[in-house]
Amino acid sequence: MSALTLFTLLANLISHLAVSLPPMAATEAPKRAPVAVKALYVTSATAQLPERLAELIQIISKTELNAMVINTKEPFGPQLDEPLSDLVAALHQAGAWVIARQVVFQDDDLPQRRPELALKRANGSLWLDRGGRAWVDPANEKVWQYNLELARQALALGFDEINLDYIRFPTDGDVKKIVYPSWDGITLKEEVLKGFLHWFKQGLKASSPYAVLSVDVFGETFLQDTGGNTGQRLSVLAPEVDVVAPMLYPSHYRSGNFGLVNPATQPYQVVYGTLKKGAGLLINSPATIVRPWLQDFNLGATYTPEMVRAQITATEDAGYHSGFMLWNPKNIYSESALLKE
Fold this sequence. Notes:
This protein is of the alpha/beta class.
């Protein structure tokens, strides 16, 4: 589909949605994020389907949502085709903040082209995690530069924010068999990740000072002050970014967390408890915004609109009023859980 066709379809569909968010000129990208960014997540595949996009934009227009997260780099490679700029322009026209989600160190594509950057086994073959995915070395500055260039391309297409995911070392698989091309095995993993984020933010802001940088971290980073096997230590990484986005999916908590037999069935307790406990780890980064990922998919329990709303309420009750991002891998969302402002 040509860029013109995609934009025309989106423009026609949006015109029938009675969008109630403050309109913006199609060529004018927002320079400051809303006080509370409330987003839904969209895969790169969904981003190529105008009718589906129109449905999601309609949800934004009818509810408290005001933003969309779109994958611009999947594990299988970058998704930065030119028609994406037309989608971003259409979203801006609808008054939305637009976020580019970029999967960083889990990468099936780059190792095929630059095998010297990939994690390997002793025999020289690619190391793969349990899901069959390849990874690149978090300590390699060529990997850093590659991802910075992709982020700059996303900003050139009109995106307002860069959201980095998989900012960690791999943990699922036979990690003892990994041969790292650059990491010395001595430098703390959290220091490697801190160095990357510090460098990345400086490079991003040098050319795009208004761009916002967010990073996704495991929910457990709010529960204990250690980098562990992932290297994600909240107190170390948070000062290096504008927004920290903990993935607070109750389905991913073990039985016994917060004294709950099945945490997935108690979303308020999980989200509230995690955010309250992590508050003390953010003392040295008072300017860093916390904007959690919340669960809107069925895993561990059938998620009702009431359970989705409970997570939003828990976030606010815990003292965080900078918004949230909803995750559903199929991009199907509980509209009735979302209030109209």
